[in-house]
Amino acid sequence: MTWTAPPVHRTGHLGELGVATERHMLEGWLSWHRETLLAKCAGLESAPLARTTVEPSNLTLLGLVRHMAEVERWWFRRSFAGEPIGEVFTGPSDGNEGLDGVRAARAERDFGLFRAEVEACDAAVAGHGLDETFLSSRGVPLSLRWVYMMMIQEYARHNGHADLLRERTDGMTGD
User: Which among 13, 123, 144, 159 has the fewest CB atoms less than 10 Å away?
Assistant: First the structure.
């Protein structure tokens, strides 16, 4: 039986964020972008998720899901929380943060790893203040607030890629 990416049920609405606290706003926008990436994949079977559709790029929807799991882990858990953990999908010399090595046969597993990583990242920053800082790998002090902003822009950029990939896959548009 072929695996199909499940539908996404929004956990919140952007209208609720207009007058929210800063933390709630940042968490809300990040959740919305996480869900948007999964919504771009919803209803597709494994093979289309792993297929390149915007040549000459090697980007795939599944690759973007894998990439965002890597980016989440890097910023929230490894950098901010200082957890001594490796990569989700790649080896230390890969450099493509999950974009390479996409296999349709592993789509269900990869989606599960993405969801687990998101939960672990949320847990890693729960109870920490937005002004708490850490030193980046380049020795630059950064705040948790900065990480949230960076992650929102990273998702926004890649959700734009996902728009094009999905439209080229089956013509579907929208968020």
Answer: 13
